[in-house]
Write a structure and sequence with these properties.
Four copies of one chain form a homotetramer. Helices cover 27% and strands 39% of the residues of chain A. Chain A has a single domain (3-138), classed as Hotdog Thioesterase (Thiol Ester Dehydrase, Chain A). By secondary structure, chain A is an alpha+beta fold. A six-stranded antiparallel sheet of chain A has the order 1-2-4-5-6-3, covered by helices on one side.
């Protein structure tokens, strides 16, 4: 996988983000900040933002942060804890910070906060550096 | 929250599923099976299905299973492990099985397999039963 | 790392198990069952078994299962969900089942049940196959 | 459960820590720091500290932090990611920081570092506030 491919991957992630109304706020090696406003079509039965959108927001910040080195990586796994509800019109901010990166694996934490700085969700992602088609097959998705 | 609301919630989940081309295959108290075919727009840089779609698929099966009792529940948190890549045209099957349900919390496991029965991803969801608006606020999303 | 080392590792795990009063009930490629009785010194303030012992029990079953192939593996990470309390005198049974094993990673689920078959805890472990000293250093513990 | 019980719980945790050679370095509402030196009997086949000890260390910091308010809490679940190996003689430092605490649940992150400030493991714990015997039974362990 070339640097070009890595850039293309990050770009694809960014486009998916745009599709959901996400905004890339900043990125630097190992970090990324992505914003998203909660729209009416993102609400579910309880009148709060569906968890799937929170996951997608955090996942995008994670993908951008772990692909910020011009080395292609894939996600091995992720977890999310929903802390407080996000509501219609809330402006959410997902900030991803790299906790570790050594050998072929990395660990990344994402905090989603609303416009008042209240914590909405915590996300943890584990990345795996791919070296080429064979190894990409050896592992997994995203 | 009334039974009607609970039904509406499950229905909303099902609709989101339809939007992503998901198919509700079966549901029963504590379980649900949801199908999805991998479309070209679900692929990412590596030519494999974006992890976000796998999460959404598993999350839908989870939401249907934990809301199958006419009691409204919310997700407290989820985790996913990506095991093998899903490819264009693959027909994925997400089966959610309840592992526990007592007091106000429940634990659910989802397996995503492809048309050959190969394991694609493992998902774990933790649910929390809501009793009304106050308690809904006390907890969280989805 | 030789087969001998792998055996020694599994043996060390088994010894740690014995130290905590654990009993290896059965093992086969990809699976293991370990038993433990809840002793007075395992209780904490609430009169229930300390979660640390439940983790150690599940972790032992996981270590034995993922090292059952004569290939040395290490744990990349684990998670545990406490479902119901274990009490003084309970006889716990931890059964580990392999969910996936391909390339260098594996996923294992452990269920801890009491003597009545009630679910006490759910554990998930992720393993990584080590190939030698350099790669062992590249990854991690346990 | 009284404040006295809550204190007794934290004290019991601290005692378990002492049994494994852990040292309580500091504690304040929502946080705790615990130290531990890696002894020969904590090593496993690979010559590195067994993951179970790292879990116990992080778990102790978590228990102290989430019980620092004179309200008894139990763990609902935990996860740990092993980042780098800890070796014989290493002096480990586990610092727990509260990420959220609202309603009855809390989220806590623990970082384990060695004497050079290198990250060894990341731990996440989810707590649940207990209100008395009935609710304690409704939930779970630790």
């Amino acid at each position: 996988m070339t640097n070009h491919d890595a850039m293309r991957l990050a770009s694809a992630c960014a486009q998916a983000s745009l599709g959901m109304g996400m905004r890339l706020l900043s990125t630097a090696p190992g970090t990324a900040r992505v914003g998203m406003s909660v729209r009416a079509d993102m609400l579910q039965g309880h009148g709060t933002c569906h968890g799937g959108y929170l996951f997608a927001l955090a996942d995008s910040a994670f993908a951008l942060a772990c692909n910020s080195y011009n080395e292609a990586t894939v996600a091995m796994g992720c977890s999310i804890d929903y802390v407080a509800p996000a509501r219609l019109g809330d402006t959410l901010n997902a900030e991803c910070i790299e906790q570790s990166r050594s050998g072929r694996t990395g660990n990344y934490d994402v905090r989603i906060e609303n416009q008042q700085g209240e914590l909405i969700a915590l996300f943890h992602g584990k990345s795996y550096k791919v070296r080429g088609p064979v190894l990409a097959q050896e592992t997994s998705n995203e």
